[in-house]
Amino acid sequence: MNYEIKGGVFPVVVCQLADGESMITEKGSMVWMSPNMEMTTTGGGIGKMFSKALSGESMFQNIYTAHGAGFIAFGSSFPGKILPLQITPGHEMILQKNAFLASESGIELSIHFNKKLGAGVFGGEGFIMQRLSGSGTAFAEIDGELVEYELSAGQKLIVDTGNVAGFETGVQIDIQQVPGIKNKLLGGEGLFNTVLTGPGKIWLQTMPISGVAGAIRPYIPTGNG
Questions:
Q1: Domain 2-216 falls in which CATH fold?
Q2: Where in the chain are the domains?
C-alpha cells in the first residue's frame, strides 16, 4: 500500500492498493474510491462487539478490498491533521478512541483500559483508549495542529485530557487533581489533568473537538424561544 496525504485543514489520505490488499475503518471515513473496491462490514466477534459497546465505539468495522489495482481515500471529520503511524510487533501505539481513522488489514485494534485507579475513575474519555498492534500502517485523525514530544525515562508532562491524541506503549498515563479549591472552582481548567510519564513519544492535539464544543455551548439557544 502506498499513500499520499492531501489537503489543508480538512485533509484526506489517498491509499493506492494492489490487488487483494485491504483497508479497515471503524467510523465510515471513506470519502471516495475506485469502483473496484469491495466493502464488507464485520463486528469482529461477540466479545469484541460487547467491549466496543461498553466503550461507546462503533461495534462494526468496514473493510475495503481491492479487486485489481485501486485506490480509496479517507477524510478527517474535523479541521486538523492526518498522522501516519508505522506499527510493528513490539512497537504498538495507544490512541484516544476517536483518533483512529483507518489502517491496513494487518493492524489489530483492541480496547485499552488505563490501569491506574485515578485514570479510571476521573479520566472520563481518557480512561478508555484504543491499542494498535500487529504490522502495517495506520492513520490517526488529529484535531487542530499536531505537537510531538519525546519523553525520557521518568520525564513527566501535564496535559489537559482532551489534548492527548496518543502515545507509545512505554508511556504511563495517570490523572491528577488540579490543586486548590479556588483553582478547581474558578480556574476554568476543570478538576483533573492527565499526567504522561516517559519513556516514549507522545502526540498532542491543539484543538480537541470536545474543547470546541464546550466553547460554543453557551452560545447555542436552548428551549423553544
A1: Double-stranded beta-helix (3.60.160)
A2: 2-216
Cell of 207: 484543538
Question: Given a cut of 70, is residue 81 above it in pLDDT?
Answer: yes
pTM score of the predicted model: 0.82
**Per-residue H/E/C for the chain:** CEEEEECCCCCEEEEEECCCCEEEECCCCEEEECCCEEEEEECCCHHHHHHHHHHCCCCCEEEEEECCCEEEEEECCCCEEEEEEEEECCECEEEECCCEEEEECCEEEEEEECCCHHHHHHCHHHCEEEEEEECEEEEEEEECCEEEEEECCCCEEEECHHHEEEEECCCEEEEEECCCHHHHHHCCCCCEEEEEECCEEEEEECCCHHHHHHHHHHHCCCCCC
Q: What is the pLDDT of residues 122-145, one digit of tens each?
A: 444 446 788 999 999 999 999 999
Q: 151-169 pLDDT, tens per residue?
A: 999 999 999 888 999 999 9
Which of 16 and 210 is assigned the larger pLDDT?
Answer: 16
